[in-house]
Task: inverse folding
C-alpha cells in the first residue's frame, strides 16, 4: 500500500519541488536560487540584442567597404578640383594669383591687395569650433563697367569659392582721369580647418 499510494505522492512532491525550486527560478531569476545571476529569459534577450548588433555591424562594415571603393574610384583630377574648391589650408600667394588671373582675363588691373587673417579666438570653451574658416581679401580693380561685369561673373563661376562681401566704386572722372572706373572689393574665401 505504501508503494501504491505514498510513493507516487512523494514523487509528485519531489517533481514539483525540483520545478519550483530549481527550474522556475533559473527561468525567471528569482526564488531561493536567484542569486543575482542572469536568468534564461534575460540571457535570451541579450543574445537577441547581440545578434542584432552583429548584423548591424556587418551591414556597417559592408557600407564602409562600399564607400571606400567609391573613394578609391575618384580620379586624382576630381580630388584636385575639390581641393581647389575648398582647400585644407590657405595659400596666400596662390589666392592672390588666382584673383589676378581672373582680373587679367576680364581686362581689369588689380592693385592694393590686402589679405586679412582672422583671429580665431573662441568666446567660451563650450562653443564648438566650426570646421570651415574664412579669409577676407580686399583689393581694388580698375577698368570699364562691361569688363567689371565680366570680372564679377568670373568670380562667381571660379572653381575657388569667392564670396563678395563689400563693394565700393568710383568713376575715373571723379579722380580727374578719363574713362575707367575703380572698384574696391572685399571677398571671402573658405578653407577647411
Result:
Amino acid at each position: 500500500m505504501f508503494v501504491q499510494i505514498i510513493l507516487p505522492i512523494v514523487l509528485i512532491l519531489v517533481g514539483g519541488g525540483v520545478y519550483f525550486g530549481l527550474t522556475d527560478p533559473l527561468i525567471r531569476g528569482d526564488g531561493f536560487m536567484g542569486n543575482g545571476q542572469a536568468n534564461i529569459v534575460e540571457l535570451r534577450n541579450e543574445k537577441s540584442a547581440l545578434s542584432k548588433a552583429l548584423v548591424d555591424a556587418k551591414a556597417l562594415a559592408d557600407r564602409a567597404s562600399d564607400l571606400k571603393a567609391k573613394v578609391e574610384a575618384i580620379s586624382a583630377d576630381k580630388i584636385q578640383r575639390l581641393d581647389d574648391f575648398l582647400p585644407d589650408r590657405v595659400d596666400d600667394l596662390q589666392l592672390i594669383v588666382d584673383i589676378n588671373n581672373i582680373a587679367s582675363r576680364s581686362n581689369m588691373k588689380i592693385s592694393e591687395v590686402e589679405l586679412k587673417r582672422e583671429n580665431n579666438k573662441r568666446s567660451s570653451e563650450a562653443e564648438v569650433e566650426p570646421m570651415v574658416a574664412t579669409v577676407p581679401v580686399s583689393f581694388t580693380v580698375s577698368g570699364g563697367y562691361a569688363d567689371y561685369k565680366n570680372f564679377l561673373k568670373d568670380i562667381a563661376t571660379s572653381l575657388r569659392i569667392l564670396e563678395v562681401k563689400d563693394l565700393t566704386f568710383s568713376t575715373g572722372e571723379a579722380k580727374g582721369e578719363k574713362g575707367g572706373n575703380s572698384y574696391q572689393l572685399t571677398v571671402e574665401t573658405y578653407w577647411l580647418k
Observations:
- The two ends are 93 Å apart (CA to CA).
- The longest helix spans residues 40-73.
- The chain is about 50% helix and 20% strand.
- The chain has two domains: 2-71, 87-118+129-192.
